[in-house]
Design goal:
By secondary structure, this protein is of the alpha+beta class. Strands 7, 8, 9, 10, 11 and 12 form a 6-stranded antiparallel β-sheet that branches. Strands 1-3-4 form a 3-stranded antiparallel β-sheet, covered by helices on one side.
Length: 255
Amino acid sequence: GSRLSDCSSVTASALERRGLVMFDCTACCAASDDYAKLEGLDSAGIPSPLSAQEDIEPAEPTAQTLAEEKAAEAAETEKEAAKAEEAPESAKPAPVGSFNVKVSKANGKLGLYLDMEKACMVKMVTPGGLVHKHNSSCPAEQVIKVGDRLKKVNGFVGNAEELYDALGAATEVEMTFERRSEKTIVVEAGEKLGIVICVKEFYQGLEVTTVKDTSKGFKVKDTIVSINGVSVGTDPQELFTLAKEPVKKEMVVVS
């Protein structure tokens, strides 16, 4: 379900050499063999799930437990309300809009990976490509980010496959992107994330595959793009490692 505008591919052995593994093999790999092949993954020989997988299975509640939980929930609600009032601008949802980017493929390859299953969502910008060069010199509001979605190619509007084909056919390209909608989720030191996350090849982020505790605000198929200001470069393993650390985490998440 994922496509690269430059039609690159990766083998399972290359994936293993780079140490990129699934956070939860069952959630990410067992769905279908075709999915594994499309992502360059092979379910055979993948290590067992890493210890960072969160598992929240509460015991059957008693009357006392329910009362305590209700009181704790009320206190938490008051705490969150106070926190929302004091939240800095950076923690508030970023505005969503559209912007256009023009490039000429006569000067090289785009270097842009798109997730076709998420409506042409940008999942990686590769160093040295035209999009990366554009990002290095353009105004901040024109930077193409992971989580942005391709909406038009040279004015053409279509589904994910049609947009991908149009992008591949044109030499002079004007792309219209919809800016990603992002949120900041704060997890205090020592708290569990309550999610299962997945590391993928050619993905500058960590994908949420399972949500076991909805109180944090995570949703299935969310993408964590940065933690405490650290973003994914070409290797998502650093962000994955940081997600496991028992420290306070401010996580920028896109849907």
